[in-house]
Specification:
heterodimer, A: mainly alpha, MetI-like fold, 14 helices, 77% helix, globular, B: mainly alpha, 2 domains, 15 helices, 2 strands, 76% helix
């Protein structure tokens, strides 16, 4: 052990490994630039005049920052309505999804009953079916139910995904069954066990589910595009799309709306990124 | 069980208790399952049915059972039988969509995985500010598609920054990427790699944490350099992850829609027409519900094949 540690110290000191480390940083910095340039360009263009956006040579910073672009966009389209709609949808979906799937997952993970496997196989089977293959019949169904062009269409579309049940079930299976049994002996009902034992213990999984649901709903494009046609129902994503189509050469304003559309999710991500990374590392790996 | 059969009184009590238990369990599942059954399960079954009918929406009276006609139509079976497979992939919508989607997948998956692996290896070597780098690389994955795609489209315009950067490197390319039928698909690939590499980097990072340190120590004792350690320890150890990530990514590549819809709308011509773009057009622009569902079934079969491959290898790795 000691021998190998010494070896490693020696390896680290050679000029070759210094060069390797330098190369490593060079690659990292190059990829960082590649990753960040679109965001930088977006931000800087959003503060320019429209004729400045495609200036030759490229100007990475605007000559003077035109903050009024950000004021202008709110009067061009009902951006506030878009934000409100998206927030309502995202919050409703997140609440319904988290509650119902943690509820169902408890039964799948900890209760014995007839038909448990059959029901679970229904979830498993559809997780492999892409939404795009059944979006049309779903659309026909929702229109028949009178949900077309209402926010509820997107809420019910997003709320009952198999993913949530999967994630929560996987987490609950890791909680010792003895805990539930002890609670049962102490006289807690199953609902009590779910509320007082499972929920508090699964904060990390719930946080993961909440962020994924929130970000997924906020960024969803195809669903709202199919279902929401009236302006008062549009979400930020389809609203941005409308803005692009109607003001196709106001590049600076389009970029300003784009920056606004990115902000809420960015804040959520930066605040809770630990759960994001954990969520992907566990669900991504275990399927 | 045998014991209880001789004591009917006790048995009845038990079943009532069991029934109550089952009812409680169903009450836990019901809120999610009802929504799931109505809005997912039912549409899935309905879509299989729809692929065998001709229907333009509206009243069910206009719905007409046509058997396999929709499938024959999308594959243009008679024309293809007459003119050969080349006709399918150069003239028929479905063939072109398939060809484009497969090409996009074949390029995007390896490129993304190589970038993701390079990033994870670099960050795993405890560079200063690894957490900061990780945040940066992951960020595109959570950024909304419409905003980033429109930004990329602008950057790839004729006088945009990308062409100017290329000019600085001595490459003169004087067109908008998304308006050139040869380049359009590459612009979509570029954006996809850019967006997804951070996600797969996170998966690789998690997998790298799981590689036993003593394997490296043994390799060092055997005199292996950094490159040999990578070839003989890291790569084989990452193989299950690479396999998993590839199948997962192939599946998501076949479902591509957002990037195409915002950047090229399937054009110019049919050069970036993808399977889902084709489904969308037939369903929501041309209202050919049967045809759209038949294309959807083609997508479903492809995705199911890769899902099965993934499941079967997962079992193999789990058993090891």
């Amino acid at each position: 052990m000691k021998q190998s540690n010494q070896d490693r110290i020696v390896v680290r000191a050679t000029p070759l490994s210094v060069a390797l480390k330098a190369l490593l940083y060079a690659v990292l910095i190059a990829l960082t630039l590649f990753t960040l340039i679109p965001f930088v360009w977006m931000l800087s263009s959003s503060l320019k005049l429209d004729r400045e956006v495609f200036s030759y040579p490229i100007r990475w910073l605007p000559e003077t920052a035109h903050w009024e672009n950000y004021r202008l966009i709110w009067s061009k389209v009902p951006l506030l309505t878009y934000f409100k709609n998206t927030a309502v949808i995202a919050i409703l979906v997140t609440i319904i999804q988290t509650l119902t799937s943690s509820f169902a997952a408890y039964a799948f993970a900890k209760l014995q009953f007839k038909g448990r496997n059959t029901l679970f196989i229904c979830y498993v089977a559809t997780i492999a079916v892409p939404w795009q293959t059944y979006m049309l019949p779903q659309f026909i169904l929702m229109r028949a139910m009178g949900l077309y062009d209402t926010l509820w269409a997107i809420v019910v579309l997003q709320s009952f995904s198999a993913f949530g049940v999967f994630l929560m079930r996987q987490f609950y299976q890791g909680i010792p069954t003895e805990l539930c049994e002890a609670a049962r002996i102490d006289g807690l009902s199953e609902y009590g066990i779910w509320a007082r034992i499972m929920l508090p213990l699964s904060k990390a999984a719930i946080a993961t589910l909440i962020i994924f649901t929130f970000v997924g709903t906020w960024n969803d494009y195809m669903g709202p595009m199919i279902y929401l046609t009236r302006d008062l129902n549009k979400t930020v994503q389809v609203g941005l799309r409308r803005f692009i189509q109607e003001n196709s050469s106001d590049y600076h304003l389009i970029m300003a709306v784009s920056v606004c559309s990115l902000l809420p999710v960015s804040v959520v991500f930066l605040a809770l990124q630990k759960y994001f990374i954990q969520g992907i590392a566990t669900t991504g790996l275990k399927g | 069980m045998e014991q209880f059969r001789n004591r009917p009184k006790y048995r009845r009590k038990l079943t009532r208790y069991e029934r109550k238990k089952a009812l409680i369990a169903y009450s836990f599942i019901a809120p999610n399952f009802i929504g799931f059954a109505v809005f997912t399960l039912l549409p899935v079954l309905f879509s299989i049915f729809l692929s065998f009918v001709k229907w333009k929406g509206g009243s069910f009276d206009t719905l007409q059972w046509v058997g396999l006609q929709n499938y024959a139509d999308i594959f243009k079976v008679s024309k293809v039988a007459e003119k050969g497979l080349g006709y399918l992939f150069t003239k028929v919508d479905l063939g072109i969509a398939l060809k484009n989607t497969v090409f996009y997948t074949l390029v995007t998956v390896p490129l993304t995985l190589v970038c993701a692996m390079a990033l994870s290896l670099a960050l795993n070597h405890a560079v200063k500010g690894a957490v900061g780098f990780r945040t940066v690389f992951f960020f595109p994955y959570i950024a909304s598609m419409v905003a980033i795609c429109v930004c990329w489209r602008f950057m790839m315009m004729k006088d945009g920054p990308i062409n100017q950067l290329l000019m600085g490197l001595g490459i003169s390319y004087n067109k908008s990427w998304t308006a050139d039928s040869a380049m359009a698909i590459w612009s979509i690939i570029l954006v996809s790699v850019w967006r997804n590499m951070g996600y797969y980097m996170v998966i690789y990072l998690a997998a790298l944490q799981g590689v036993p340190v003593d394997l490296y120590e043994a390799a060092i004792v055997d005199g292996a350099g950094k490159w040999q350690q990578f070839i003989h320890v890291t790569l084989p150890q990452l193989r299950p992850t690479t396999f998993f990530a590839s199948t997962m990514m192939i599946i998501s590549c076949f479902k591509i829609y957002d990037v195409v819809a915002i950047m090229t709308e399937g054009g110019p011509g049919r050069s970036t027409k993808m399977l889902v773009t084709y489904i969308y057009d037939e369903a929501f622009s041309n209202f050919n519900y049967g045809v759209a569902s038949a294309i959807a079934m083609v997508l479903l079969v492809i995705v199911l094949i890769f899902t099965l491959i993934q499941f079967s290898t997962e079992d193999r790795y789990a058993n090891n």
